[in-house]
Backbone:
């Protein structure tokens, strides 16, 4: 599966130049999400075979990003293609996947297809649902790492190259804050500034599925580290406080 992933990714490298910088980020992100999936599934006590399949899902979940970027020069699904659906189509043709038991193959494929849905798809059955919940948590954990590292490095200069509608201003838009205060979520397509982007990342915490993953959010101090980079007002502090209360309550209920 790893060889299949490496070959596919390298097919987007340009002669003498290699992979475009945003695609290198996605390649490294995929590797780390695979590791997050492995660690979460191991902590959840999944059998060894399922841990390996969970790791494969982590590695393959963003397959659709590569052809999306090559074709449209953006990672914005709204103005290009649903990268979950695109990844599903690519992975469906992967021979290595067809050697797995049917339920595991389906769980990996459905995990790729729906990992980026705004809300979790409730219709999936047991194993597919477990895999989908896992990949959504593992993906978010690593996205936090990518974002925080990129801001520390250079203020996230790559962001407008990946999502051209977003500028690097750290002040959130008032209408985004209003929506987050009322609905605790906001459509990705409406984001305009880095401040908006960081605030929506904070709101993703409400979507975590496994307390074990939420524990990582807590231990890595994700909420305060995200907010540190936002030029916010009292409403941002209010949103942060609500998120932190949610984490405390959820972990106390374990
Ligand atoms: Fe993705």
Residues:
């Amino acid at each position: 599966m790893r060889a299949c992933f490496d070959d596919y990714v390298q097919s987007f490298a340009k002669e003498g130049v290699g992979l475009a910088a945003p695609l290198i980020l996605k390649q490294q992100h995929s590797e780390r999400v695979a590791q997050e999936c492995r660690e979460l599934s191991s902590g959840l006590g999944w059998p060894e075979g399922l841990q390996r399949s969970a790791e494969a899902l982590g590695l393959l979940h963003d397959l659709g990003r590569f052809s999306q970027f090559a074709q449209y020069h953006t990672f914005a699904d709204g103005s290009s293609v649903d990268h979950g659906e695109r990844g599903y189509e690519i992975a469906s043709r992967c021979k290595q996947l067809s050697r797995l038991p049917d339920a595991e193959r389906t769980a990996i494929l459905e995990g790729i297809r729906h990992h980026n849905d705004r809300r979790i798809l409730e219709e999936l059955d047991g194993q597919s649902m477990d895999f989908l919940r896992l990949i959504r948590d593992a993906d978010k954990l690593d996205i936090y790492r990518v974002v925080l590292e990129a801001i520390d490095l250079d203020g996230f200069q790559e962001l407008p190259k990946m999502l051209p509608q977003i500028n690097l201003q750290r002040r959130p838009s008032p209408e985004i804050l209003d929506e987050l205060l009322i609905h605790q979520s906001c459509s990705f397509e409406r984001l305009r500034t880095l401040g908006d982007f960081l605030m929506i990342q904070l709101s993703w915490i409400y979507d975590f599925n496994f307390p074990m993953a939420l524990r990582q959010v807590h231990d890595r101090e994700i909420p305060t580290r995200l907010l540190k980079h936002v030029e916010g007002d009292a409403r941002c502090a209010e949103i942060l406080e609500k998120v932190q209360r949610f984490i405390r309550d959820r972990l106390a209920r374990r």
The pocket of fe (ii) ion is lined by residues 61-62, 83, 115-116 (CB under 6 Å). The radius of gyration is 18 Å. The chain has a mean pLDDT of 94. Residues 167 and 193 are 5 Å apart (CA to CA).
